[in-house]
Write a structure and sequence with these properties.
By secondary structure, this protein is an alpha/beta fold. The protein has three domains: 8-153 and 277-337, FAD/NAD(P)-binding domain; 162-273, FAD/NAD(P)-binding domain (3-Layer(bba) Sandwich), CATH 3.50.50; 357-458, 2-Layer Sandwich (Enolase-like, domain 1), CATH 3.30.390. 31% of the residues lie in helices and 24% in strands. The chain has 14 helices and 20 strands. It has helices at 20-31, 47-50, 53-70, 86-111, 169-172, 189-200, 220-232, 284-287, 323-337, 366-371, 387-391, 420-432, 437-442, 453-458, and strands at residues 8-16, 36-40, 114-124, 127-132, 137-147, 151-153, 181-185, 204-208, 236-238, 243-249, 253-258, 263-266, 268-271, 275-277, 310-312, 351-353, 359-363, 376-382, 398-404, 410-416. Helix 1 (20-31) packs parallel to helix 9, helix 3 (53-70) packs antiparallel against helix 4 and helix 3 packs parallel to helix 6. The termini are far apart. Keywords: FAD, Flavoprotein.
Length: 466
């Protein structure tokens, strides 16, 4: 049944997409008594809990457990033959996702947010026509509108790739058997996480990287250490590759022909070459919302688009592609509503890559500091120097810090090592408080912890002028 009477439903706040930043803002506004609607195609709670952060980390956890079991003898634990039950792995991941979907659905209901399930498209300024999932339609308009549609995996136009029906990180969560040989195109954040997870679940894995090294946004010493760890896990990494063509079908048999004539044969292929914004076919031109050359919505430091009363949140607005960054967009917007001048300018977003050894980083690395002409003092500490790393029998990796040459300000930190994603928060708090590095150097951090390694690292910072 179609909405043919032209009736327009008015809301104080209207959200197109329900990712982390948008849903958080919608719930808070609804709790304050505002009339709020969230238009969502189906991923209640956003991509993070449905197909990204949460399920992929649940899969990675299964891979880590499998790896631990298979290496239990290294710790004096005798085990019998181990077998991965991929059906159970998949069910476990699905169960975690469903629990969080229920949490988010209940959160919307408790706050009084109207959840509208369907595909929304602007048909005018701040007005959206929604083709509902049940076949009907509604026209909604908001005093303010927030676009929070996120991104999706990019499948590049390589000859034969799309015909091969490749996996992305979304479909990889649905495989019912461990791939015999998984070919991963892309050596970035997602590709590396998926490659190691499936290797540890029992797949043979080959990573094909166009650039000269994996994890190209990191310094070369980080990339080299990651590559060494992956090769130790039995993962084949090929860099500087040019893909000529792809044939076959993922899940059956695939073949990748490289520019040097080498043919890589596998059972599955996974593409992880980047992400593109979900801005096509949502009527942005009708709303007066402009995008950049890559399709991301143009916003200012207050997350305002080029259309009056329309804002954008999260990845679609060019915010770093992390859930915690989207949530910080929520903080910016709600603070502005309360009279603050908080913006996105000069914020520093940390991140972690959930491989083993784990990678975390915040602020500048050496390459970025050099490119910006910022003189720095650098200290580096191998994880083998950290007592807790030795008790864990996991001494791979290192910590590295960049300190300003003319002051004691911390400009950047990177760690490749066990639990790096937890340790980075200590450095982040010091950076937020603009504390000199000597505060961490001289703090009595608990022993033996991995964070204690920061004492040792910061003690290696060269004196000014050296």
């Amino acid at each position: 049944m179609q909405n043919i009477d032209g009736h327009v439903e008015m809301f104080d706040f209207l959200f197109l997409g329900g990712g982390k930043g948008g849903k958080s803002l919608a719930i808070e506004l609804a709790k304050s008594g505002k009339r709020v609607a969230v238009i969502e195609r189906g991923m209640i709670g956003g991509s993070c809990i449905n197909v990204a952060c949460i399920p992929t980390k649940a899969l990675i956890r299964s891979g880590r457990i499998a790896h631990a079991v298979m290496h239990a003898n290294d710790f004096g634990i005798e085990t019998g033959p181990a077998r991965v039950d991929m059906h159970y792995v998949r069910a476990r991941v699905k169960g975690i996702v469903e629990e969080l979907i229920d949490v988010n659905r209940n959160g919307f209901e408790a706050a009084g947010v109207e959840l509208v399930l369907g595909n929304g498209k602007f048909e005018g300024p701040r007005r959206i026509n929604v083709q509902l999932n049940n076949g009907a339609s509604r026209v909604l308009e908001g005093e303010r509108v927030y676009i929070n549609t996120g991104t999706q995996a990019d499948v590049p136009a390589l000859p034969g790739l799309r015909e091969a029906a490749p996996l992305t990180h979304v479909e990889a969560l649905q495989v019912e058997q461990v791939p015999e040989h998984l070919i991963v195109i892309g050596g970035g954040y997602i590709g590396l996480e998926m490659a190691q997870a499936f290797r540890r679940l029992g797949a043979k894995v080959t990573v094909l990287q166009r650039e000269s090294r994996v994890a190209v946004r990191e310094d070369e010493d980080v990339s080299s250490a990651i590559a060494a760890a992956f090769m130790a896990d039995g993962i084949e990494i090929r860099t500087n590759v040019a893909i000529e063509s792809i044939s076959g079908r993922s899940g059956d048999a695939v073949q990748v022909l490289l520019g040097d004539g080498v043919r890589i044969r596998g059972s599955h292929i996974l593409v992880a070459t980047g992400r593109v914004p979900n801005t096509r076919n949502i009527g942005l031109d009708m709303a007066g919302v402009e995008t950049d050359a890559r399709g991301f919505i143009k916003v200012d430091e207050r997350l305002r688009t080029t259309a009056l009363g329309v804002f954008a949140i999260g990845e679609v607005a060019g915010t770093p592609m992390f859930t915690h960054a989207s949530f910080d967009d929520y903080r910016v917007l709600i603070a502005q509503m309360k009279g603050s001048d908080k913006t996105t300018r000069e914020r520093v977003i940390p991140y972690a890559m959930f491989i083993e050894p784990e990678l975390s980083r915040i602020g500048l690395n050496e390459r970025e500091a050099a490119a910006q002409g910022i003189p720095v003092r650098i200290a580096r500490l191998p994880m083998s120097a950290v007592p807790r790393a030795r008790t864990n029998s996991d001494t791979r990796g290192f910590m590295k810090v960049l300190v300003a040459a003319d002051s004691d300000q911390i400009l950047g930190f990177a760690m490749l090592g066990s639990e790096a994603g937890e340790v980075v928060s200590t450095v982040q708090i010091a950076m937020l408080g603009k504390l000199p590095y000597t505060v961490i150097r001289d703090a009595p951090l608990a022993h033996p912890t991995l964070a204690e390694g920061l004492n040792l690292l910061f003690a290696e910072v060269p004196a000014r002028g050296n």
